[in-house]
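Pasting as-is:
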Amino acid sequence: MSTSTVRRQPIAIVSLEWDVVDLIESCGRFMIAGFFDPSPVCDPKEFRHLGPDEAWSTALATIPDLKAALAIDPPEARARLFSHYGADSLVTLLSPRAYVSARASIGAGSIVQHGVTVMPGARIGTACKLNVNSTVHHEATIGAFTTLAPGSQILGNVTIEERVYVGAGAIIRQRCRVGAGAVIGAGAVVVQDVPPGATVVGVPASRRLR
């Protein structure tokens, strides 16, 4: 019986993160062509450093059909780089070890990591990052470019606006609204609405004054 080789999609990681490397490899349909980073903290011999973000056009000219994955966490950086690389060039990564309801939606360019749960009626916006073991419950809405750190829990009917960072292990209670650009500290328990741009910490979460 003859066998055929399936060509894998070349993909570049925007800001190298090893958990995203593992995720890409688990999907089985990609070939990591390298990574973009203006100042990498490490120099892994396993992958080619393609240069800073400005080198994207050069890489496209030398690597046919190259796509990119936004691995970077900070929401503002995700928004900026989404515009830089372009919606058509970014892939959506969905771990085979995540549970995403058929009644949920995932925005283009998002990353859904191992152990993530997305329940029915949940809506995940453009270029979001749902890190390991985070949970989005029923009818929750996650705005574009938002990052959920590992183990965070977004309960039912929560609305999170764009460019929000939710820290590791944080919980946002039912029906709360989190304004655009807010930061939820690690381990915080949010029990009331959070204004746009605010940083909240603690149990129950309260606003931290700068």
